[in-house]
Each structure stands twice: as C-alpha cells, then as structure tokens.
C-alpha cells in the first residue's frame, strides 16, 4: 500500500499531448511578439528616416528659397545684379565729379548743359531726356562760313535785316544777314544769323553787342552752334542755350548763361561772393 502511494504516476498520453500543445502555442506567441517588435522597430526607423528626409528637404527648400530671394528682380524686367549695378551707378552718378572746368560749352552734352555748373550726370527734366533721344542733322547746304557766323536772338519783333546790318557793320564787313521768319505768316521769329568776312569781327561783336539794348530789346549774341558745336541739339528738341527762368528749363554753358564755377573749385573769396548772390543766378 505504501509502495503504491510513493510510486510515481506515469504520465498519460493525453497529458503529454496537452503539454506539447502548450509549448507550441507559447513558442508561437514568442515568435509573434518578436515579429511585431521587429516590425515596429522597422516602421519607427522608416518614419524617422522619412522625418529626416522631410527635414532635409525642408532645409533644402528653405535654402533654395533664400537663394531665390537673393536673385528676385527688383525691377519689372531686370535681375537683381542689374538692379544693384544700376543703383551703384546712380549713387556714383549723384556725386558731382569735377576734373576740368570752363565757363562755356565746348562739346554739347544735354545733361551738363542743364546743370548750372556743368557737373550733373543724370537728367533732371523730360526735355533733357528728349534731347538725349533725339537726332539733329545740321543744314550743310548753307553757303555761309559757320566759323564767321553769329547768332543774334531775342530781337524786337519789328527789327529788320537792314537794322541789323547797320548795327553790326561797325565791327567789320558784313557779308550776309538772315532774319528767320515764319513760313506762313512772314512774321519775324526774333532771331537772325549774321556772317562776317573773318572771325575777328565776330569776337568784337560779341563783346560789344551781347546783352545790350537794341531797339528796346536785350539781345543775345553768340557764335553759331548748329554747324560748329559737336553734339548740338536745338531748343525745339530740348537743347539750346539760355531759356526763361519761369519755364524751369534753363540751359547753361552759352554766352547768355555761362556755367557757374563749381563749389569744389572755389576759393574763399569766390565762395563768399557766390553765397551773397543766393547760390548764383538760376
């Protein structure tokens, strides 16, 4: 009886089958958990790589956007570099550059002629721009000598060729007098051209008659510019010399309104005199 109690019970086939099934299911659960963890790790690695890629792409886009902002054209049809170069040129042009100075124009430049001291480098009114864009061809069919011909302006409307010939013949022999008249009405346009035999009477006539009172009008006398002055543009094209102060389109460099000496080249005495005249006559 005691032997039967202490004798080990041999496992039955059914219990052995249950144990094997339990082990198999436990092994499956372990494999499933391992596969899930590996899948989760792969997905996390993938999402991390996606995040890294998107971050890199965002940085690249931001960098390219910054670079594109640096090349955004500020003008309608110009690049940033062209605009920058134009701005630098404008800043440099806004500073007067004075090298040599002479009160009278030798080569006609509409921008310089529009400046009181001849130092401007940018146009300040539309007439100057019109003069820059225009083309003037002098009349080469004229038989008069341009170096011996004077321009006389601001004449009295009743002045005739005979009056001019008598007034200027005291300086030398007058070859020709041409008073410009309107083609339709025949009325005087109040300016004329007078030709002498040589150049010396021209210089004396300018000294004696320029800004003088002639028949109730203050006339201006200067050398002809159309055929002698390089780059000349007449008044009708936005150029010319002189002009009315009220019109706001004065032109300097002629006998009527010579250039004022730039402030950079004035000494103390000249500068004080210039200030006494409120900055010169404008």
TrEMBL record:
Ranges of Polar residues composition bias in the record: 50-63, 69-93
Family annotation (Gene3D superfamilies): 3.30.70.330
Protein name: U11/U12 small nuclear ribonucleoprotein 35 kDa protein
Residue spans of biased composition, Basic residues class: 1-10, 18-32
A biological-process GO annotation: mRNA splicing, via spliceosome
Source organism: Cacopsylla melanoneura
The UniProt record lists the keyword Coiled coil: no
Record PROSITE patterns: RRM (PS50102)
Compositional bias per record (Low complexity), positions renumbered to this chain: 33-49
Matching InterPro entries: Nucleotide-bd_a/b_plait_sf (IPR012677), RBD_domain_sf (IPR035979), RRM_dom (IPR000504), U1_U11-U12_snRNP_70-35kDa (IPR051183)
Subcellular location: Nucleus
Limits of the RRM domain: 148-226
Span of the signal peptide: none
Key words, A-Z: Nucleus, Ribonucleoprotein, RNA-binding
Residue span of region Disordered: 1-93
GO cellular component terms, A-Z: precatalytic spliceosome
Sample GO molecular function, one term: snRNA binding
Residue runs in coiled coils: none
């Amino acid at each position: 009886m005691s032997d039967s109690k202490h004798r080990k019970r041999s496992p039955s086939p059914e219990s052995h089958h249950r144990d094997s099934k339990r082990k198999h299911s436990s092994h499956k659960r372990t494999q499933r958990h391992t596969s899930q963890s590996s899948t989760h790790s792969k997905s996390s690695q993938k999402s991390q790589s996606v995040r890294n890629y998107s971050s890199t792409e965002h940085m690249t886009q931001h960098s390219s956007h910054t670079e594109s902002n640096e090349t955004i054209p500020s003008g309608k049809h110009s690049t940033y570099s062209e605009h920058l170069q134009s701005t630098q040129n404008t800043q440099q042009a806004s500073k007067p550059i004075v090298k040599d100075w002479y009160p009278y124009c030798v080569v006609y430049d509409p921008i310089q002629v529009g400046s009181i001291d001849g130092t401007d480098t940018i146009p300040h009114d539309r007439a100057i721009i019109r003069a820059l864009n225009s083309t003037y061809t002098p009349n080469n069919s004229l038989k008069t000598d341009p170096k011996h011909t004077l321009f006389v302006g601001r004449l009295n409307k009743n002045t005739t060729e005979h009056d001019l010939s008598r007034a200027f013949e005291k300086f030398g022999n007058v070859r020709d007098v041409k008073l410009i008249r309107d083609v339709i009405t025949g009325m005087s346009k109040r300016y004329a051209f007078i030709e002498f035999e040589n150049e010396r009477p021209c210089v004396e006539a300018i000294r004696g008659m320029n800004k003088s009172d002639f028949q109730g009008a203050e006339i201006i006398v200067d050398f002809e510019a159309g055929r002698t002055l390089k780059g000349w543009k007449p008044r009708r094209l936005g150029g010319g010399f002189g002009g009315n102060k009220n019109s706001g389109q004065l032109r300097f460099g002629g006998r009527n309104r010579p250039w004022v000496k730039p402030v950079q080249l004035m000494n103390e005495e000249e500068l004080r005199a210039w200030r006494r005249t409120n900055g010169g006559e404008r």
